[in-house]
Amino acid sequence: MNDVNFIPSLTSAVYIVGAGPGDPELLTVKAQKLLSKADVILFADSLIPEQILDICRPDAEIIQTANKTLEEILPMMIEGVRSQKSVVRLHSGDPSLYSAIHEQMQLLAEANIPFEVIPGISAFQAAAAKLKVELTVPGLVQTIILTRISGRTEVPAREELATLAAHQASLCLYLSARHVSDAQAQLLEHYPAQTPVAICFRIGWPDEKIRVVPLEEIAICTHNEKLIRTTLYIISPALLPATGRSRLYHPQHNHLFRSSHH
C-alpha cells in the first residue's frame, strides 16, 4: 500500500481543481490524481488544453462547458454526486482568482453536496517564471497586486486602477486587454512612463507571446499584436535591469522578449 500511485476510489463529491495557466505539466500532483480517478470531468474547453484530458480514465464522462451557463453546469455536478459519482470541475489557473467559484460553492453547499478546492498555478506565477524574475525584490518592491480593470465586471471604486497604481507595487493586471488604453492612462498617473511592462499572452500554451515594453507603449503593442483576451500585464520595477536580478534588457535576450522582435 506504500505505492504512491495507489489511489483509493474517490468519494462522491465535487472537486474544484485549478488546471494552471496552460502547460499540462503545471498541474499539481493532487490535480493529476483526481483527474486520473474521477468519473465525471467538466472543463472549460476554450481555456484548458485538451492534453490534460489524456490523464483521465478512458471511460470517464467528459463534459465541455465553454458554451454552458452556471445554471446548466450546476445540475450536472449535483446529479453526478447524487448518483454516487466523483466529479471534477476543472478551472483554468487557480480557482481563487477570477474563476467565479464563489457562487458555485454557495449553491453546492445549499444542495448539501460535498466539495473540495484544489489550488493551481496562476498566470502571474507562470509569467514570472518565464521572465525569470522575482516580483518581490528587497529594497525595491515587496507587494504584489492582482487586479483587473472595470469592464463588464464592475470593479469597486476604491479599487480603481489609478488608486492601486499609487503603490507602485508589482501590479498584475488580468482580463484587461480590451480596455488597455484606459488601463495605460490610469497607470501612467503614478508609474513612470518607462516602467517596464511584460505583456503575456496565453502563458504556457504553444502560441504564447511575451513582449516587454515601456508602460507608455502597452496599448499600441497590444493593438499591434491584436491581443484581446487571455492576456496578463505585469507592471513592475522588478523588471528593471537595475535590480541586478533581470537580464531582460541584455542584448543577448532581445530575441526573446523585446517588442521589436517577433
Mind sketching the topology for me?
Blueprint: E1 14-18, H1 29-37, E2 40-43, E3 61-64, H2 70-82, E4 87-91, H3 101-110, E5 115-118, H4 123-131, E6 144-148, H5 161-165, E7 170-174, H6 180-187, E8 196-201, E9 209-214, H7 218-224, E10 231-235, H8 254-257
Parallel strand pairs: 1-4, 1-5, 2-3, 2-4, 6-7
Antiparallel strand pairs: 7-10, 8-9, 8-10
Throw out a few tags for this protein.
262 residues; alpha/beta; 10 strands; disordered N terminus; disordered C terminus
Give a brief description.
The protein is of the alpha/beta class and 262 residues long.
Characterization of the model:
It is a single chain. The chain is of the alpha/beta class and 262 residues long. The protein has helices at residues 29-37, 70-82, 101-110, 123-131, 161-165, 180-187, 218-224, 254-257; strands at 14-18, 40-43, 61-64, 87-91, 115-118, 144-148, 170-174, 196-201, 209-214, 231-235. Strands 3-2-4-1-5 form a five-stranded parallel beta sheet, with helices on both faces. It has a five-stranded mixed beta sheet with strand order 6-7-10-8-9, sandwiched between helices. Strand 6, helix 5 (161-165) and strand 7 (170-174) form a beta-alpha-beta unit. The protein is elongated.
